[in-house]
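User: Second chain of the day. Same drill as before.
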Amino acid sequence: MDHNSGRACYETYISTQQPQAQAHAWLPSPYGNQERSAGPESTARQGSSTVDALTPSRELDDGALAPHAFSRHSRLTSAAEYGRVFARSQRSSDSLFTVLARGTEGTGPRLGLAISKRAAKRAVQRNRLKRVAREVFRLRSDLVSMDFIVLANTGAKKASLAELRSSLEKHFDRLARQSGPASHGK
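Assistant: Same format as last time:
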């Protein structure tokens, strides 16, 4: 307590002496870090590789892709391919997504994504919607040979992961049922 006013005093004693130098100082020595290589070549970082342990390898030993990989031939890649589906397609919609589909001649199912800024203003939100759509598509091994385009609606950015997945599953199921042998190649 402070003797003059009767109030508590919160002052502490701080030493004015400098601490002694330690063997492993944080600041570099005047000669640089002697353990580090001086050349442009760098050695591999030491430590655990947790990223490699958490993410499965996309390529198998024989060069084949992993079973759930999203390869280039599983995507719509050109404006002409997108235009073909937009011009004439079957449609399935709800408050989260609109999915367009059009049959193809035996090339297998392919996915195109058209997630606009109108549906989700922030890139983080759009990327999340794209990741979910790719994941649901990759895990569907039973899809018929069709081209699909996923469009997001404004309600998708606030939806939970389970809601997004179930909506996309419902659309893929509905469009696969609607597609018949007569719709292929139109």
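Helices lie at 50-54, 79-87, 123-139, 161-178.

User: Great, on to the next one.
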